[in-house]
Design brief:
The chain is an alpha/beta fold and about 425 residues long. Helices cover about 30% and strands about 25% of the residues. The protein is elongated and about 80 Å long. Its main location: cytoplasm.
Length: about 425
């Protein structure tokens, strides 16, 4: 289907003009240029240094009914509104967005998408079967396959990174930096009735004879090990004396059902951490019992869980690090319960001895829930109650590509050496 639309991309305006004036090779030359530079097409906005024009492209091999941009600069779930259109009489499908030039995000394309809205999806695997990487974009982000779940393949998405996206200086190994040690254990919880992997990072020069080390406990341990290179980030920060030495414990989340149950404000999880995991950590490693030097953190549901653990056990965990915390969630996802349940608990509770680092991406706005609004709401509540609650927004989505860079920001905010 061909839809008429006004062109805002200067390159596409030029292509259309060339074709209309009879330049028969213009289309082939256009695709040759795109093949060399890759997609999306990024162009300046005349007189505007703050924004860029980003044009997504699809080269039609035939039988294309629609092409939808998935995530990226779009509102997640607005499938019908984010369809490309075809440049008349060509095989060029396109859609242009004007966005801030500090955007970093990932996206996919969906060829011949069903356009079924999020709230009507019954089979998620079938709904996403048409999602794919952008074949003309060589820049990709890979969430690696977990060797413990070989039935779940790696996840690959395309990267959109604009010129003024924040630097991520801590995520790559450096040859001149000493590396800490990572040990994997299997930890059994009688309270939770399960056994999981726990990865423990100890810093270079770790010893049991000095002052106890600070403690960082992160949920979704596999993600914080492989998708977000936490050991490398800590190595680099410690090498430049930006943080005091600490031990990091990366707690596996097992399967999705277990993750959903445990990370949704579960008092049983809090009990397991206090009564089982922490005693085990103190037996095995030389770490502090000072809550002011202890961080509980996580991403998405893990950010929600971290804040709930801090709320429930501030005498143990004095710092909360939340990356895109899912604070919109109802209590145990009960349809009859209150939305933003945890935020409302902080409203009714006297101020606790807690410090917070909270961040969220400006693209985390879906047709079903707005993470930006709910994270801002929690920030406002905490600051009104007198908490030290540092808050940051990045121009990206709900994705590891952004979290891997901003984890260091949270650590520096909560534990930076004075």
């Amino acid at each position: 289907m061909t839809t008429k639309t006004s062109l805002t991309s200067p390159r596409l305006v030029q292509l259309q003009r060339d074709l209309q004036t009879g330049q028969a090779q213009a289309l082939d030359l256009f695709w040759q240029d795109i093949g060399e530079q890759g997609t999306p097409l990024i162009e300046v906005v005349p007189g505007d240094e703050v924004h860029r024009l980003v044009t997504f492209l699809w080269k039609d091999p035939g039988e294309t009914h629609n092409v939808v941009i998935i995530r990226g600069p779009t509102r997640w779930g607005d499938f019908a509104k984010n369809q490309m259109v075809r440049l008349p009489e060509t095989n060029v499908w396109y859609k242009t967005y004007q966005v801030r030039s500090d955007m970093r995000t990932t996206y996919q394309l969906s060829l011949n998408d069903s356009l079924v809205p999020l709230d009507e999806v019954e089979d998620w695997k079938a709904r996403t079967a048409t999602f794919q990487v952008d074949p003309l974009n060589p820049h990709r982000y890979v969430f690696p396959q977990d060797e413990d779940t070989p039935e779940v393949p790696e996840s690959v998405v395309s990267i959109l990174e604009l010129p003024h996206a924040p630097a991520q200086p801590w995520i790559s190994p450096r040859t001149d930096v000493a590396q800490g040690n990572v040990e994997m254990h299997h930890f059994h919880s009688a309270l939770l009735n399960n056994t999981r992997r726990v990865w423990v990072y100890t810093p270079p020069g770790y010893t049991g004879s000095n002052e106890p080390y600070g403690l960082l406990l992160l949920f979704d341990g596999f993600a914080y090990l492989r998708a977000i290179p936490t050991p490398t980030i800590l190595d680099n920060l410690l090498h430049e004396h930006r943080l005091p030495p600490l031990v990091a414990v990366l707690l596996d989340s097992l399967d999705q059902e277990t993750r959903n149950r445990e990370l949704r404000c579960s008092p049983l999880l809090v009990d397991a951490l206090r009564q089982e995991l922490l005693p085990w950590i103190h037996e095995q490693y030389h770490v502090t019992t000072d809550p002011a030097q202890t961080i509980i953190g996580g991403l998405s549901a893990g950010g929600l869980a971290a804040a709930f653990v801090g709320y429930s056990a501030s005498e143990t965990f004095g710092n909360v690090l939340s990356q895109s915390g899912a604070f919109w969630w109802n209590w145990m996802l009960d349809d009859d319960s209150e939305a933003e349940w945890l935020t409302k608990q902080f409203v009714g509770q006297k101020k606790l001895p807690l410090r917070f680092y909270i961040e969220v991406g400006l693209l985390e706005r879906a047709t079903t829930v707005d993470q930006v609004v709910t994270n801002r709401h929690l920030r406002d509540v905490l600051q009104a109650k007198g908490y030290e609650a540092s808050y940051a927004e990045f121009n990206g989505g709900h994705e590891y590509l952004c979290w891997r860079g901003s984890l260091a920001n949270g650590l520096l905010t909560l534990l930076s050496k004075k």
